[in-house]
Each structure stands twice: as structure tokens, then as C-alpha cells.
Design brief:
Layout (H helix, E strand, L loop, with lengths): L1 H15 L24 E7 L6 H13 L8 E8 L5 E2 L5 E2 L3 E2 L8 E4 L13 H13 L2 E5 L3 H6 L7 E2 L6 H7 L4 E2 L5 E4 L2 E4 L6 H12 L1 H10 L11 E3 L3
Parallel strand pairs: 1-2, 1-6, 2-5, 6-7, 7-11, 8-9, 10-12
Antiparallel strand pairs: 3-4, 10-11
Helix pairs in contact: 2-6, 6-7
């Protein structure tokens, strides 16, 4: 057990990199999610590729899927899409079957881009992935990124002139690669228009719960969190909502 714990920590450090010093920034603005904006059923498409990290894929999937237990009329139906519709292997070694291929995926209301091993490097050079993402991002009503999922989103051009965040140790890299993006160093997640970017890891539940609250109201978000044995109070979380 001790060996497994040490190995897990070593893999996490190798994947996410060492902590880096962060430039000073103005305090994060903490705001409660807006009043409910949607009634009815929405779809959520999760990008599944080799090297995706378990937490960034599964935590928001759990949240969005559990909305069906709170309201039989207003909920989110999630599914996983992969380039060819084939199964893929996560960074931690789990094999996951996709529901759809990129080409056959149904319309996606909420696009979720989890972090993957190649999010800052090889994934940005994958023409199939990036070509599909650019179209999916444009068509989605909302886009959530977890950890380094902000990098492929930024590479589509969607974050130009917007505020965003990513995994703490990689914020400086995001700012370097995409200087037209205003990177926040002081928030767990950032909301700018339809885009919700976040730090990922164990906090990957937060941006999904924020969206549930935004769509269906505070009580729905709290009951969804309760079903997963989580406390939810957006006012207690350091996040930033850009002025529109």
C-alpha cells in the first residue's frame, strides 16, 4: 500500500510538473452563479483520447450525469467521443469505451475538454483533434476545460481576449503560448462568457457544479453535490466571473 501511494504521487508530479512561482495578480472576484438559465435536457460531450487523466474526465462526468436524479425534466445527458469512436487508455491505465466518434457524435450543448498527457504538446499538433475541436467549440453553448484542457481550447482561438486559468504549475506556460489570453493565477475556475476553465485535479467537480447551478439553480446544484457526498457553496470557492 505504501508503495502504491508513493507511485501515485510520483506519477502525478511527473504529469503535472513542479510548482512554479506565479506573478502577482488582483484578487479574484467571488460571485454566486446566475439565476437559472435553462429548462430541459442538454447534452454534454466529453473528449476522450489516449493519455487523458482520470480525474479530469470522470469528476465532471459524474456531476453532469447525476443531474438526472434531481429533476426528471431538466437534466444533462453526458457521453464520450473519441476520434474514431474506439476505446482509449487513460494516463493512469484505464481502458474506456467511447460512445461516439467525432464524425458521428450528436449535437453537443456542453463540450468538456479534460486534460491529457499531450494537451500542451502533441495534441496541439493533431490536425484531426484540433479540426474537430474548433468546430465543436464554436457550436457548443458552453465549454468546460479541466487542468491543461485549456491549452487545446486556447489553440482554437476561442480564448483570445478572454480570461482563463489552468493547472497552477502551467499557468505561466499558457500565458506564454497564448499571450492574448488573460491568465488568472488566483482562482479555482474562471468563467468568461460560455467558457469555464479550471485548475483540474480533485477540484474538477467545481466547474461542473457551477454550470449546474447556472443552468438549473442553487438547489439543483446542492442536491447533485449531496448525491456525491460533496458540500457545495459557490461563495466559498475562489473563482472569477468576467464582466459581460
Amino acid at each position: 500500500m505504501k508503495y502504491f501511494f508513493l507511485l501515485t504521487i510520483a506519477c502525478w508530479i511527473a504529469a503535472c510538473g513542479p510548482a512554479q512561482s506565479e506573478p502577482p495578480t488582483e484578487p479574484a472576484v467571488v460571485q454566486e452563479a446566475d439565476s437559472p438559465k435553462h429548462f430541459g435536457v442538454l447534452t454534454a460531450g466529453f473528449v476522450g483520447i489516449d493519455g487523458v487523466y482520470n480525474s479530469e474526465l470522470m469528476a465532471p462526468y459524474d456531476i453532469l450525469q447525476h443531474t438526472v436524479f434531481r429533476d426528471s425534466l431538466n437534466y444533462i445527458t453526458p457521453f464520450v467521443v473519441s476520434p474514431e469512436g474506439a476505446s482509449f487508455v487513460t494516463f493512469e491505465g484505464l481502458t474506456i469505451a467511447a460512445h461516439h466518434s467525432f464524425a458521428a457524435a450528436p449535437p453537443i450543448d456542453i463540450l468538456v475538454i479534460p486534460s491529457a498527457e499531450g494537451s500542451m504538446t502533441t495534441d496541439l499538433e493533431d490536425d484531426v483533434l484540433m479540426g474537430w475541436l474548433k468546430q465543436a467549440v464554436a457550436e457548443a453553448k458552453y465549454v468546460i476545460t479541466l487542468c491543461d484542457g485549456a491549452f487545446p481550447l486556447a489553440a482554437t482561438g476561442a480564448l483570445a481576449g478572454r480570461v482563463a486559468t489552468t493547472f497552477p504549475a502551467d499557468r505561466a506556460r499558457l500565458a506564454e503560448l497564448f499571450p492574448d489570453t488573460n491568465v488568472r493565477y488566483d482562482a479555482s475556475f474562471v468563467v468568461d462568457g460560455k467558457y469555464i476553465t479550471s485548475v483540474g485535479g480533485a477540484l474538477s467537480y467545481e466547474p461542473a457544479l457551477y454550470l449546474v447551478e447556472h443552468l438549473y439553480g442553487v438547489e439543483s446544484a446542492r442536491r447533485t453535490a449531496q448525491g456525491l457526498v460533496l458540500d457545495w457553496d459557490v461563495e466559498s470557492i475562489r473563482h472569477f466571473v468576467a464582466a459581460q
